[in-house]
Write a structure and sequence with these properties.
With 237 residues, the chain is an alpha+beta fold. It has 2 domains: 122 residues, Sandwich (Jelly Rolls), CATH 2.60.120.780; 99 residues, Herpes Virus-1. The protein contains 4 helices and 12 strands, in the order E-E-E-H-E-E-E-E-E-E-H-H-E-E-H-E. Strands 1, 2, 4, 7 and 9 form a 5-stranded antiparallel β-sheet that branches. A 4-stranded antiparallel β-sheet has the order 3-8-5-6, with no helix packed on it. The chain has a 3-stranded antiparallel β-sheet with strand order 11-10-12. Helix 2 crosses helix 4. The longest helix is centred in the C-terminal third of the chain and has 19 residues. It is elongated, with a radius of gyration of 22 Å. The structure holds zinc ion. The site of zinc ion has 8 residues, from loops.
Length: 237
C-alpha cells in the first residue's frame, strides 16, 4: 500500500502523512487465537511542528488487510488498545481514534501503542497518521471547484424519469416535483447539491449535509437513502 492509500478517505480529515517513520507504515495483525503486540513510534519533526496547530491531529485507525479496494474502518474482534498506557474507548466503533493528546510529540520521545485482540482468521492493518481537520466551509469550497450540473444535465434526468413513468404507469401527464426546501433542515436550500449516483432531481443543502456528517459520518442521501459520498456530490444550480 502506498502512503495515504488503503483506508477509506475521511472527508473531514485530510491525510497528511504516516507517522510510524521508524517502522513500516502498516503493520499486519496476524490471524491467531489471541493477539498481543506493541508498536513504537517517534513523532518526526514535521509531525511535531504540525500538531502545534489546532486543526492537525494524530489518528489511529484499523481496517481489514484487503487490497481489493479502499477499506472502511474495522476493529479486530475484542480490540483493546492502549496509547502510552492509557486505554482508548472503542465502544460504538469502529471509527478513527484521535490520539493526539496521548502522544508525546517531541522528537526524542518514544510512543507506545499496545494492541490486543482475539484473532478470527482475518488480517488487519493498523495505521497512525497525521491529518488536518477540515471544516464545513473547506468542503463547500472543494465542492464549488467541481464542475456543477448544467440545466441540460437536469433536463436529461427529467426526460429519463418521464419516460420511465410513462412506460410504467401508462400516462403522459406526469408532474415531477422538486422542492426548494432542504429535506434535512426544512429550510430554504443555500447550496443545492445531489449525488451523481442518485436518480432523483430533488436536491438538498450541501451546508446542512456536511454539518450532519461532521457530527456523525454516514454520507447517506437524505432523499433516497443511498450512499452519497463526497466524491459523487455536485452542485445542481
Ligand atoms: Zn439520492
Amino acid at each position: 500500500w502506498q502512503d495515504g492509500q488503503g483506508f477509506l478517505l475521511l472527508w473531514f480529515w485530510q491525510h497528511c502523512h504516516h507517522i510510524c517513520s521508524s517502522f513500516k507504515n502498516y503493520e499486519k495483525i496476524t490471524p491467531v487465537f489471541s493477539y498481543q503486540r506493541s508498536y513504537r513510534f517517534v513523532a518526526d519533526q514535521e509531525t511535531a511542528r504540525a500538531v502545534t496547530k489546532d486543526d492537525n491531529k494524530i489518528l489511529l485507525r484499523f481496517c481489514l488487510m484487503d487490497l481489493s479496494g479502499e477499506q472502511d474502518d474495522k476493529f479486530p474482534p475484542e480490540l483493546k488498545v492502549l496509547v502510552n498506557g492509557i486505554e482508548l474507548d472503542t465502544k460504538g466503533g469502529p471509527f478513527p481514534m484521535d490520539i493526539t493528546a496521548l502522544c508525546k510529540i517531541t522528537c526524542d520521545a518514544l510512543n507506545l501503542i499496545q494492541v490486543s485482540s482475539i484473532g478470527l482468521g482475518n488480517y488487519y492493518v493498523i495505521s497512525v497518521s497525521l491529518v488536518k481537520k477540515l471544516t464545513v466551509s473547506n468542503l463547500i469550497e472543494k465542492l464549488k471547484t467541481k464542475k456543477p450540473l448544467t440545466m441540460q444535465d437536469t433536463q436529461t434526468l427529467i426526460k429519463k424519469q418521464l419516460r420511465g413513468e410513462t412506460l410504467s404507469e401508462d400516462t403522459t401527464a406526469t408532474i415531477i416535483q422538486c422542492s426548494l426546501m432542504c429535506p434535512l433542515s426544512m429550510t430554504r436550500i443555500v447550496v443545492p447539491c445531489r449525488a451523481t449516483s442518485c436518480h432523483h432531481i430533488q436536491v438538498f443543502d450541501a451546508i446542512v449535509y456536511f454539518r450532519v456528517n461532521e457530527l456523525k459520518s454516514n454520507w447517506i442521501c437524505p432523499v433516497c437513502n443511498s450512499p452519497a459520498l463526497f466524491p459523487s456530490l455536485v452542485i445542481d444550480g
